[in-house]
């Protein structure tokens, strides 16, 4: 979850986490120690965010302009544009290598400061840093919010489901935009196969997501275990109750895989 960018924290802390991971894997710094690839230690999106955005190309306004653009693209002008794109891509790759080397050097310097720390200590320090995020322990789901108390939708958000509350996060932001304790939730359920509805007091929140069933099951489990479960409204399909001691809880956020593949929740022992 850290490497995929779903534990929002500062770049300095991300470097420290990478150094602790190296200490856990290799013990004290040594020039002969095997080095994992940077993307196995540090979130790649942080490096990509440093690169300049691609140039904006305004759309053609009429058929004649599109036709002229097509004719130009097929001739010398098109070849010149292709050459410019190739040169720009090469510069970006070079810049990315430089940023990666600079980040790895900073991680190694922090690793050197951990000399004498054994593996259990490094793991404990790693988890302690991650626990500083208020959303630690929640299961996160990537959703599009269509009915929003914080502005016009849809918005891409994280839906965090924890033991005590449901929270909405702007991706990458450590503090929630809003948070609802289970006592405020009046009903919830699937509007259709890709839309989940959550009623909080006098507000209805509609989330578009590929994990409707997982969200409903996890909410039902937490509400039941907290003794705060409330029946769905009549127009909703009923939600079957889950055991209070499930063997496996539904998992959230699968950013690097198909949406049905399970991943460990934030707060698990995986980095």
UniProtKB/TrEMBL annotation:
Residues 231-240 have a biased composition (Pro residues). Residues 1-233 form the FERM domain. Pfam families: FERM_M, IRS. It comes from the Eukaryota. InterPro entries: Actin_motor_Myosin, FERM/acyl-CoA-bd_prot_sf, FERM_2, FERM_central, FERM_domain, IRS_PTB, PH-like_dom_sf. SUPFAM superfamilies: PH domain-like (SSF50729), Second domain of FERM (SSF47031). Residues 227-247 are annotated as: Disordered. This is MYO10 protein. It comes from Sapayoa aenigma. The gene is Myo10_2.
């Amino acid at each position: 979850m850290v490497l995929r960018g779903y534990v929002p924290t500062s770049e300095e802390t991300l470097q420290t986490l990478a150094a602790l991971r190296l200490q856990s894997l290799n013990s004290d710094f040594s020039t002969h120690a095997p080095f994992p690839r940077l993307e196995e230690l540090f979130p790649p999106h942080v490096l990509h965010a440093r690169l300049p955005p691609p140039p904006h190309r305004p759309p053609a306004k009429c058929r004649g302009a599109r036709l002229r653009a097509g004719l130009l693209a097929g001739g010398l002008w098109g070849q010149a544009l292709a050459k410019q794109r190739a040169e720009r891509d090469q510069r970006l790759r070079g810049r990315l290598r430089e940023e990666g080397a600079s980040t790895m050097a900073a991680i190694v310097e922090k690793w050197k400061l951990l000399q004498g720390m054994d593996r259990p200590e490094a793991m404990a320090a790693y988890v302690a840093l991650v626990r500083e995020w208020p959303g630690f322990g929640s299961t996160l789901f990537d959703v599009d919010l269509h009915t929003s108390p914080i502005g016009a939708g849809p918005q891409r958000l994280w839906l965090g489901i924890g033991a005590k509350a449901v929270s909405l996060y702007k991706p990458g932001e450590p503090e929630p935009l809003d948070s609802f304790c289970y006592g405020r939730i009046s009903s919830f359920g699937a509007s259709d196969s890709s839309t989940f509805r959550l009623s909080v007091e006098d507000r209805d929140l509609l989330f578009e997501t590929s994990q409707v069933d997982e969200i409903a099951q996890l909410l039902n489990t937490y509400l039941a275990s907290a003794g705060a479960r409330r029946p769905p409204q009549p127009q909703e399909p009923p939600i079957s109750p889950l055991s209070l001691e499930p063997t496996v809880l539904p998992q959230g956020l699968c950013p690097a895989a198909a949406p049905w593949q399970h991943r460990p929740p934030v707060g698990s022992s995986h980095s």
